[in-house]
Amino acid sequence: MSRIHVLTPRLANQIAAGEVVERPASVVKELVENALDAGASRIEVDVEQGGAKLVRIRDNGGGIDEADLSLALSRHATSKIQDLDDLESVSSLGFRGEALASISSVSRLSLTSRVPESEAAWRVEVEGRDMDARLSPAAHPVGTTVEVRDLFFNTPARRKFLRAEKTEFNHIEEGLRRQALSRFDVGFSLRHNQKPLFSQRPADSQVDQERRIASLCGTRFIENAVMIDNEASGLRLWGWVALPTFSRSQADLQYFFVNRRVIRDRLVAHAVRQAYRDVLYNNRHPAFVLYLELDPANVDVNVHPTKHEVRFRDGRLVHDFIFRSLHRALAQVRPADHLPGNH
Ligand code: ADP
Ligand code: MG
């Protein structure tokens, strides 16, 4: 008797969902990435009960054509890459074609969208259970709204792992803060249980950018930071680094973006730590908002499903460039400003 069988699509998606959808904040992250990839200039995030009851993301991006709506929910369905060459120089945030399939397998999901070429909007709905998509006409301006209700309603074991509403919401807020810092040219708003938490208009000038940083990271950070912008060997590092006098007891104000992608990377962390080594006590942590830009072909983003990690083609070069850029910027600060005991 044969013992091996192919998993149903639903079960396969639910297993994959374990990697992509850890908690409501992961849903927000994936859906906001989709909105950014769709070219939205305005993204509204609404959540209820820490996202466990509802996550709704509305964007004014390019929308999804009626013919593609159900396909968007299928696993490995993406409009972003075609072949391996595309993957090697991917510039979109998404490319795995997994998020919507995974999220819809563990929630009640609806996707409403309209493309600029069409007068009408369409909605597709799925309910975890059978993955049968229902398509119906709807009203919606150009762009997309995705509603995710009752996350993990059909996977009770995972639902049990959800933390208190406040904790889940904090994760959402922190994630969206990172995304709002990653794209000054896009407006973001966040509401929890109908209450507005923040609303950021697109920030074009440096003044507007610093205003956004002040509201997301605190005025004291921006008042104590210097702006840097350095370019060499096809690499550019720019952003704001806090003077050593504004060091932190925790590594809680450290934002690093690679090609506008939010990342956590040991090589980057090491380079930054080295640059601050002479000016900070060991137990103090620097604060920074930094953007590294390089040719997408020189960085591999397909390391992990959540895409938090990257691999640089020439890690040594990147490490030294970050170290030198920061070291120089910190050395230019008047010596009296950065005596470690001076805070
Ligand atoms: P990926 O982002 O890796 O392509 P997703 O499952 O997140 O995979 O999305 C599948 C596809 O659905 C995308 O490639 C895109 O074509 C479409 N899509 C999803 N969200 C949006 C959106 N907000 N606006 C326009 N298209 C979208
Ligand atoms: Mg995606």
UniProtKB/TrEMBL annotation:
Family: Belongs to the DNA mismatch repair MutL/HexB family.
Protein's recorded name: DNA mismatch repair protein MutL
GO MF term (any one): endonuclease activity
Functional description taken from the UniProt entry: This protein is involved in the repair of mismatches in DNA. It is required for dam-dependent methyl-directed DNA mismatch repair. May act as a 'molecular matchmaker', a protein that promotes the formation of a stable complex between two or more DNA-binding proteins in an ATP-dependent manner without itself being part of a final effector complex.
Species assigned in the record: Hydrocarboniclastica marina
GO CC entries: mismatch repair complex
Keywords in alphabetical order: DNA damage, DNA repair, Endonuclease, Hydrolase, Nuclease
GO process terms (BP): mismatch repair
The DNA mismatch repair protein S5 domain, residue ranges: 213-331
